[in-house]
């Protein structure tokens, strides 16, 4: 029977299938950060259990770490406690940890791929919704809750109901100035934030095939924001070229064997999906969000839509979102004053994102009055930025380059947007208060962020 990429991986990892119930799924790689793991380790201690396969878990603190002075003790007591607890748990249970300041430290979804820990055909979980990022490699990767983190640590398996399958195909070629982030934001606004609920999505089509691994990661990262369990892209030559020689990727004969297996993974041509959706690249322009969920987005040349609510509750929700953001129906979004720009996160915090930002700001100056945080997704990305000399371009233009972490993506550290202020952010969530109490977030790709940083307004980057 013809199979999808998802089914091939899922079936190869099914240890037990409970009739009419969940599957017991073997997990190849478990990533662990400081926010969702403490109770899981407490649970193991309470039950007197060890970690079943310690070599399969990798830990990295990312959410709570400061992005300045990482060589000094963390000043905030709550954050310090979270990070130290992860250190202690990793030591007690014999797990690899890339602690703060470690050359491999960074946002867990950035460091997994760059170290070759994320591989095609893998099942990958983490107590974090954006685990979907790793699907870019042709892996079944999804976020889990803390009780499941405990399950994985104890047994290297979890119980999961099998999701339905959806293929989203994007045909054609992207127009100049349009990025993978714009594709993702476009898809979410068309699908809505619940349009893929219950599904595992495979992204396909020319646009996706043409994307670099970094772009595929950006695309898969946002899958969760339309309700999908995860998103994935079939492995191909782009995937193999990215992985070859990465520290933890297979080497020599093992590499050849692995590639031979990975080549068998793509969806069979006559496999059937539960749902098929198609989009055309020609319809996509640089995107921005205007509301308080990632689905409330428009093309940058469009106006804030009229209230589309179909009942009182929906209409009230829409009105509330616009009021929170300070936008009016029918209003143009360009020309809105910007207070902060944040470039970073597991969505757009990789070297290629900073290279693109640097290309756009080179030889120009930051707009006065805008606070701009450039936060690499990992220490390795920071190193790449420095060795490419981008740090000098940033400094000359007046931008501040920070140390790695989740940072203002959700402001669990000190990087908080002040109440009422507007931030153009390359991250993935624009919920009320996400970047600090009362903060207002406009999600966008790197070019829109660069244009805002240079002009101080929401500006179409194609007009710069
Ligand atoms: C803290 C963590 C559980 C959370 C997630 O699951 O996504 C965070 O990473 C986020 O982006 O909101
Ligand atoms: S960068 Fe943001 S979205 Fe990604 S894991 Fe950290 S907090 Fe979550």
From TrEMBL:
It catalyses: (2R,3S)-3-isopropylmalate = (2S)-2-isopropylmalate. [4Fe-4S] cluster binds at residues 346, 406, 409. InterPro entries: 3-IsopropMal_deHydase_lsu, Acnase/IPM_dHydase_lsu_aba_1/3, Acoase/IPM_deHydtase_lsu_aba, Aconitase_4Fe-4S_BS, Aconitase_4Fe-4S_dom, IPM_dehydratase_rel_enz, IPMI_cat. Residues 7-456 form the Aconitase/3-isopropylmalate dehydratase large subunit alpha/beta/alpha domain. Binds 1 [4Fe-4S] cluster per subunit. Its EC number is 4.2.1.33. It comes from the Bacteria. Keywords: 4Fe-4S, Amino-acid biosynthesis, Branched-chain amino acid biosynthesis, Iron, Iron-sulfur, Leucine biosynthesis, Lyase, Metal-binding. Pathway: Amino-acid biosynthesis; L-leucine biosynthesis; L-leucine from 3-methyl-2-oxobutanoate: step 2/4. Its cofactor is [4Fe-4S] cluster. One of its GO terms (molecular function) is metal ion binding. GO terms for biological process: L-leucine biosynthetic process. Belongs to the aconitase/IPM isomerase family. LeuC type 1 subfamily. Heterodimer of LeuC and LeuD. PANTHER family: 3-ISOPROPYLMALATE DEHYDRATASE, HOMOACONITASE, MITOCHONDRIAL-RELATED. Catalyzes the isomerization between 2-isopropylmalate and 3-isopropylmalate, via the formation of 2-isopropylmaleate. This is 3-isopropylmalate dehydratase large subunit. It comes from Muribaculum intestinale. The gene is leuC.
